[in-house]
Amino acid sequence: MKLTSSPLNHLRYYVPLSSFSPDADLSKLSEVDGTNGSAHLARLTVAGRSTDRVIIFNTPALKDLVKIEFRAMDKWFEEDVETFCHPKDPYKRIDILSSTRSVKIALDGVTLAESSSPLFLLETTLRTRYYLPPTSVKWDLLMPSDLETLCPYKGKANYYHVNVDGKLHKNLVWYYRTPTMESAAIAGHLCFYNEAVDIWVDGKKVER
């Protein structure tokens, strides 16, 4: 298998034709416009289910490799570990650091959470996120949301709305019940969108 990145840093898996099981029926449909026969749209059919989100390549760099749109498949695995949403970037990392620095979170002048035992999550190219223990949050201001999102580095996130003085701020808080192994430390902790709330770290306000 090959992992590539586009100029927009969209990672893709390319699977050798020889790696498909005998149960997988892979058939070419038509030539991709402008490729002079070096790429063909294709259909993948397995157990009566199929997807046309497939391209078969025949170039020196991608000879006999198949690109399948990530979301077209039910599951993807790196070795025996399921990965979510999109392939992981080998140049990206997650660091989760325990801290005794005080973190206070407020919205419209109302304190939502405050803790002296937060976790700082550092993710390559992204701003620091502050994960607070559930005992530090004012639960009377939170309302469960049906939203779920996926992250290949952290897993499946669930959300809460925040209600401040009768105004509902949707999906402002997220948490991971069962995060991936690399992010296991944040299980059950809550994180508020930096961009939508006021955050102080050791009394110094963080820019939104």
TrEMBL record:
InterPro entries: DUF427, DUF427_sf. Residues 103-195 form the DUF427 domain. Gene3D superfamilies: Domain of unknown function (DUF427). This is DUF427-domain-containing protein. It comes from Ophiobolus disseminans.
